[in-house]
DUF1795 domain-containing protein (Candidatus Iainarchaeum sp), 329 residues
Amino acid sequence: MVLFLAAGCIQPQVKREQTPPAQQGPAPSTGPVIPPVAPKSPPAPAATNMEFSLWEGPLYSLQYPSNWEVQLLGDLVAFVSPAENAGDFRENVNVFAAALPPEAADTSAAQLFANSFESLQASIEDFRLVEADDQTQLGNEPGVKVAYSGTSKGVPLQFQQRVMVKDGTAYSLTYSGEKTKYGAMAPIIEAMAQSFKLTESTAPQVVGKWVSYGETVFYDSGEREWPDPSNTPPLELKTDRSWTQGDAQSAQGTWDVQAIEEKDWARWNTRLAGASRKIILYGGEAALADGPIEEAGNRVDALWLLYRAGPPAISRPGQVQIKFVRSAS
């Protein structure tokens, strides 16, 4: 079976609110370098007199103001400032990560922005490019920083976007807010950008291709079923912390390895002797499936993935349990 159909995903409960539109990662392709613009402004000082909290995800971490709200919106994480008055535009910083297609894996951050420049102009009313810096960094990696202005429903807005590409994945950090507040917000934007760090893999042993060795469906009604494992496409875990399943790559996301907690065993309703770490597969920022890692010393023998499912993936609600072993090819 193909893993993680939407009908059967393990999804955390996330509060969804209307958030101001922000530019996500520009579409990958080839094209010109970043367009010429006005002289660069000096870097903003680090934010002071504000308490920050740490947000950690499978691919990156960063610090954000502690009184800001965190919203998970698919592949995008939004950090949204508190509203001062009803109807206010809430300043926000959105972070977006996306794996580039193989043919665009070598595209630079400057090319990504240049290729999306025309669509950016068309999507923002009264668009004006204020600044472009192709000598900046994000996550200690070379990237570009651009600032541009526009209006929305008659409100003048200011945007700042930083784009970086690492190991075939594009990362974008974008600020959106009222133009009159940009000066006061600049130190906060700078502090968040400077705190952005890529998460390095702590489990290189799991990188590679894995195939289903055995599958069991535990239905909530008490029955069990053993699907043919040969029908499940291979799973590939890549060094850039992304995963794909099957030739069509219709299922994909990011992966992480973490220590097993006691509550994990209770949630899985099973135990694996000697297991201390778990593999987690994400789709966007939501965990789709996880399970214990079967290992001995530095050798990983099997990955167990467990997730909730229901029709049409399986005939009725239950838990799917799949054991993956290394592919011989």
Q: What stands out?
A: The chain has two domains: 14-198, 202-326. Residues 109-123 form the longest helix (15 residues). Residues 14 and 168 are 29 Å apart (CA to CA). Residues 14-198 form a domain with the Protein Transport Mog1p; Chain A fold (CATH 3.40.1000.10).
